[in-house]
Amino acid sequence: MSKKKKKPTAKKAIPAQSLTTSNTFWSNTKLHAILIFAVAFLLYANTLKNGYTQDDSIVITDNMYTTDGVSGIPGILSKDTFFGFFKVEGKSKLVSGGRYRPLTLVMFAIGYELFGESPLMGHLMNILWFGLTSLVLYWLLLRLFNFDKNPEYAGMIAFCTSLLFAAHPIHTEVVANIKGRDEIIALLGSLAALFFALKSFQEKKPMLNFLAVGIFFLALFSKENVITFLAIIPITFWVFTKAKMGEIVKTTVPFVLAAIGFLVVRGSILGWSMGEAPIELMNNPFVKVVGDRYVPFTASEELSTIFYTLGYYVKLLFIPHPLTHDYYPRHIDMMSFGDVSVIMSLMGYVGALGWSLWATFKRNPLGYAVLFYLSTLSVVSNLAFPVGTNMAERLVFMPSVGFCLFLVLGLSMVFQKGKSEINTKITPLVIGLICLIFGALTVNRNFAWKDNYTLFTTDIETSKNSAKLNNAVAGELLNRYGKLPEGQRNNGILNKAVGHLNQAVKIHPNYKNAYLLLGNAHNYLKNYEQSIQYYNKSLSIDPGYSEANNNLAITYREAGQFYGEKKGDLNKSLQYLTKANSMNPSDPEVIRLLGVANGIAGNHTQAISFFKKLTELQPNNAKAFFNLGSAYYHAGDAANADLFRNKARQINPTVEQEMRRGN
Fold first, then answer.
1. How many CB atoms lie within 10 A of CB 482?
2. Mean pLDDT of 569-593
3. Which of 118, 365, 523, 586 has its CA 20 to 30 Å from the CA of residue 24?
4. Which pLDDT tens digit goes with each residue over 474-517?
5. What is the CA radius of gyration of the chain?
6. So where are the chain's domains?
7. CATH tag, 599-663
8. What is the pLDDT of residues 222-281, one digit of tens each?
9. What pLDDT sits at residue 20?
10. Where are the alpha helices (DSSP H) in 319-399?
11. How many Å from the N-terminal Cα to the C-terminal Cα in the chain?
C-alpha cells in the first residue's frame, strides 16, 4: 500500500498591521506631532480675528457668573449651566433634564478675570485645546496599533486619522465658536483618560489608572456625553489588548464609580428628574401644530425624523457642505418611514450596529471604529432622550473620531498590496487630498463665524426653513437699524426683517420672540397699530413676557406722541397715552405728554394734575415747573402761574429760551 502524500500546509496570510516598510517618515512621531498641531492651529488661525457669536453670550458675555471672574466660580458650580444667563429659576431648564457643565464655564471665568472681555484669547485657547486634542488622538492611536512593534503601519494610521480629524470642516462649529470648548474638553479628557488607562495596563503602572479616572471625572463636568466612554474603554481593551475579561472589568469599574459620583453631584444640583420634554418648538423639535395647539409627534414620526438626521450626519461626515449652525425646525422637517432616505438610514444604522458588534467581538479595528462612532453618537441622537434640537454639527465632534479612523482603515484595506504588503503611499495620498479639500472648506467656513450678523445672514441661505434662524437674522437686522444715525436709516432693512419674521411665525405660529420682534419692527416703521397687535399676540402666548410688556408700554407712548404731534388727532393721542400710563404710571415722558395733550384739548385741570405729578417725580426739572405754570395760566390762575414759572427760572434761568427753541 502506497503512503498518502502529505498535503502542503497553507501559509497563513500575515495581517497588514504586522508588516513594516523602510519608509522612516512613518516612524518619525515628533515630526508627526509638529505637523498635526501646526495643521490644527493654522486651519483655525483666521478665527483669531472673530468676535463672540451664537451661544457665547449664554456662557460668557451675558453670564453673570462668568463676567464676575474668579468670584463667580461658586455660582457656576452650584447652578444649572444656563442659570447665569437667564438669572431666574425655571428658565435655565428649558431643555429636558437641564445642563450641568461647569468646567468650561470655570475656564471662561478665569479667562475673564485675566483678560477681560477678550474674544481673541477665547479663540486662541480654543485652537490650542483643539490642537492638543488632535495630538492626544494621535498618541492614543500609536498605542492602539502597537507602534513599538509596527511603527510604519501604526504611524501611518495614527498620523492620517489625526490629520483628517484636525482638518474636518464639521468641527468648525466647535472650534470657531468659543462656547464649543465644552465639546473640545470633553473629547480631550475622554481620549486622555483612555490613553492613560491603556498605558497603565500595558506598562504595569497602576497609579496611571488613578490619573485616567481623575481626568475622566473632570471631563464629565465639561459635557455629559463623556459617559459614553464607559462603553468605549472596555471595548478598546478587548480589541487592542490581550487583557482577560476580569482585567477589563477591573480596569473599567473605577470609571463607572467616577461616573456615578458625577451623576450624584449633578443630581444634587439639578434634581433627579429628567422632566418632560417641553411642548415648545424651539426646545423640542418633535412637536407639530394640530388645530391651534402643539402636540407631540407620533412615535413613527419621531423615529423617522431621528433616523433621517442620523443619515444626514453620515452625509456631512463624507461631504461636509453646505454647513450651518442651525438645524432647528423646520430646516429638518417632519419625516415618515415612507421616505427612502429614512429607510436607507435605518437599514444602514441597524446593519452597522450588527456588523460592528460582530467585528468588534472578532477584535477587528474596523468594527471598533464603527462601534466608537455609534456609541458616542447614541446619547446625542435623540433616541435615548431629547437634546433640544433635531441635530447639530457639534454633536458629532466626538463620534467623528470613529469616522476618521474608519475611513483611514478602510482605505488602507482597499489599497493594500495583496495580503503580504501594506501600502504606505496611496492611502496617505488620498487622505492628503481629502485634507486639502477639507482644510480649504474649514478656513472658508471660519469666516462665517466672524460675528452673529455674518453667521446668521450666511447660514440663512442654507437653513431657509428654520424658524429660529429667520428670527435671529431679523433680530440682527433690527439691531443694526437701531444703531444707525437717523439720516442713514432706511425702511429696506426693516422690510427685510419683517419678511424673515413672517417666515418664522409661519413655521412656528406660537413663536413669542418673533412676535416681539415684529412689534419692534413695526414700531420703527411707525405702524403703531400693527406693532401693538404683535406685542399683544406675544403676551397672549406668554402673559409674563416682561420684554413684550415693556415694549408695548413704550409703543403706546410713542403712538400717543405721534398722533398728537404729527397727525393732530388728540383723541387717539390721549387714548394711547392713557394706556401707556396705566401700564407704567411712573414714566415721566408719558406724564409730560398727557399734560401737554390735555392742555391742548382744553382739559386744564387734568393738565395741571399731570404736570404737578411730573414735578413731584422730577423736582429739579425746570421745564416741568414752567409747564405747570402755563397750565395754571390757561386755567385762569395767574398767581400759581407766576409762582411755578418763577420756580422754573430759579432752577434754570434760560428755561423759556430753551423751550421756545424746542430743546
1. 11
2. 96
3. 365
4. 999 999 999 999 888 889 999 999 999 999 999 999 999 999 99
5. 32
6. 32-446, 466-584, 599-663
7. 1.25.40.10
8. 999 999 999 999 999 999 999 999 999 999 999 999 999 999 999 999 988 766 778 889
9. 39
10. 340-361, 365-378
11. 129
